[in-house]
Design goal:
The complex is a heterodimer.
Chain A: E1 7-16, E2 19-29, E3 34-38, H1 45-53, E4 60-65, E5 68-69, E6 77-80, H2 94-103, H3 112-124, H4 140-152, E7 158-162, H5 170-187, E8 190-194, H6 198-204, E9 207-212, E10 214-219, H7 221-224, H8 229-234
Helix pairs in contact in A: 2-3, 2-4, 3-4, 4-5
Chain B: H1 2-9, H2 12-37, H3 42-64, H4 75-95, H5 100-120, H6 131-136, H7 144-173, H8 175-180, H9 185-207, H10 209-226, H11 230-255, H12 259-279
Helix pairs in contact in B: 2-7, 2-9, 2-10, 2-11, 3-4, 3-5, 3-9, 3-10, 4-5, 4-9, 7-9, 9-10, 10-11, 10-12, 11-12
The chains are: A alpha/beta, B mainly alpha.
């Protein structure tokens, strides 16, 4: 294991034209932590994910993953994108999707070894029956499991998820968080998840980043979600338990 | 029947048409899968029309240089011209908020306008460009030199696409996901457009713009309706392209109908059957 933190962001600033999407983001996250990133729409959460994946180069500052520049070691990272970007017209099976995570290319022909490893990954996320099912015929929850299997199949040290629960029901979301916790303890991995679910962040995460273009709060959930952090991030907080934010 | 088919194969022009057709069908079937899955059905038409501008420029250059050396063949000017147009289309859709189809539409119109302008500068009796042939072509008129160019181009294009298939397919499925896995998505986009430009210019010169556009879209679209996976779609598109080419050439030989029309109509018939079969 390296001694560098899993994530180190120093003064990360991203601009689009004249608009600052992210400003001066500073963050250290140790290995084997579970970071939930929360914030309102337009807060720069997905942009921050793209910075971590090496897809967006910061205009200023640097992002290091395990001590190396973001994007330089994709094998150590498993990524679950937002499901709303998925193209259902693409002819593919759940098995092929998982093998793409193993091979880092789309499979033309799946070898016996790849088939076995992918099936095992699907089994681990409770989706063993989906192997030969076309992606276009999967429900939101099933698709989420297939994408999770794809991300975990190469046993990454860091799992990054961008709003994986969008469009799936509460049960599927609960299962997802349970599966992530299981993988994290099993593989000693670090998890970074963008979520709108403050209850999940409070319950499952070891650290929470409250973001609205700048870091509003960062730390253990009881600290980051307390005080006026949420109000400063969202402008206002919903009634009741203060867990559901518009 | 076998004797008649054997008799058909005695004709050298028919042998060249069959070989050239199979080469074009294989190349465009492989390419067409990415064209259809990326929503670039307009690309074939756009690049073929861009090649018209290039061929017209080639004709003007040939006229200006009195038709000496490599510049006597408009193809050698049309190739870089169309590749430049293809890369410009890729650049506009990459660097601006315009879609690929919008960028294609712009370069399509500009290339045709330039083509007409270039041709207008050549005296009619010195013009080597047959616009009717360029549009509608004739696969039966493939000469020995054309066949060599087609087969070599097809071998290179098929080799490049086969080598990059896994990464191209991954980028086609989800560009962001592929990029996060270290796939050079942007470079592959430009490479795909450049390869498409070469395939289109060479094929359109011989079989015409209309047949070229059909080859690029219809077999892949029909295969998409039936195939559960992208690899099955790829083999299906090639099989449909090759089969309809062979059947179309046989039909045109025995029924005395235009070969291009026969091939396109057979492709359309397969597409229709696939549409009905896919709805069941």
């Amino acid at each position: 294991m390296s001694t560098s933190p899993a994530l180190r962001l120093r003064h990360v600033t991203v601009r689009r034209g004249d608009v600052e999407i992210l400003r001066d983001i500073d963050l250290d996250l140790g290995e084997r932590r579970f970071l939930a990133i929360i914030g309102p729409n337009g807060a720069g959460k997905s942009t921050l994910v793209k910075v971590l994946l090496g897809l967006v180069e910061p205009d200023r500052g640097e992002a290091l993953l395990f001590g190396r520049p973001a994007g330089s070691d994709p094998v150590r990272i498993g990524y679950v994108p937002q499901l709303k970007t998925f193209d259902r017209s693409f002819p593919a099976t759940a098995l092929e999707l998982v093998v793409s995570g193993l091979r880092r290319a789309w499979p033309g022909r799946v070898s016996r070894h790849e088939h076995d490893v992918a099936c095992e990954a699907l089994e681990r996320v409770g989706a063993g029956r989906l192997t030969d099912r076309p992606l276009a015929r999967l429900s939101g929850g099933e698709l989420q499991r297939a994408y999770l299997a794809r991300a975990l199949v190469r046993r990454p040290d860091l799992v990054i998820l961008d709003e994986p629960a969008t469009g799936v029901d509460f049960l599927a979301e609960h299962d997802l968080n349970r599966l992530l916790e299981g993988y994290q303890s099993d593989a000693d991995a670090t998890v970074v998840m963008v979520t709108h679910d403050l209850a999940a962040a409070r319950h499952h995460a070891t650290d929470v980043l409250v973001l609205n273009r700048v870091v509003i709060g960062f730390g253990p959930p009881e600290r980051a979600l307390a005080g006026d952090c949420l109000e400063r991030a969202y402008g206002h907080v919903g009634h009741g338990h203060g867990l559901v934010v518009p | 029947m076998i004797a008649e088919l054997s008799g058909m194969l005695d004709y050298a022009f028919m042998q060249r048409a069959l070989l050239g057709g199979v080469a074009i069908a294989t190349m465009t079937g492989l390419l067409g899968v990415f064209v259809v899955q990326r929503g670039l059905a307009f690309l074939g038409d756009g690049l073929a029309h861009a090649s018209f501008g290039g061929i017209a420029l080639g004709a003007l250059v040939a006229y200006g240089t009195s038709g000496s050396g490599v510049l006597s063949q408009p193809l050698w000017v049309a190739l870089p011209f169309t590749m430049a147009a293809a890369l410009a289309i890729a650049w506009v859709s990459d660097r601006t908020e315009l879609s690929s189809d919008t960028a294609i539409g712009v370069f399509f119109a500009v290339s045709v306008a330039l083509g007409v302008l270039f041709l207008s500068r050549i005296p009619p009796d010195r013009n080597v460009v047959d616009v009717w042939h360029l549009l509608f072509g004739s696969i039966l008129a493939v000469g020995p030199g054309d066949l060599t160019i087609i087969v070599v181009t097809a071998a290179v294009v098929v080799g490049l696409l086969a080598a990059a298939w896994g990464r191209l397919a991954y980028a086609t499925f989800d560009a962001e996901l592929a990029a996060s896995d270290g796939v050079p998505v942007r470079a592959l986009d430009y490479a795909l457009f450049a390869v498409a430009a070469v395939a289109v210019v060479v094929s359109a010169q011989v079989v015409g713009v209309v047949l070229m556009a059909a080859y690029l879209v219809i077999p892949a679209a029909a295969a998409r309706l039936l195939a559960p996976t992208l690899s099955a779609m790829t083999f299906g598109a090639i099989a449909i392209g090759v089969t309809t080419t062979l059947a179309g050439l046989v039909a045109s030989f025995f029924a005395d109908v235009p070969s291009g029309s026969a091939i396109i109509l057979l492709q359309a018939a397969v597409f229709l059957v696939a549409t009905v079969a896919a709805r069941r």
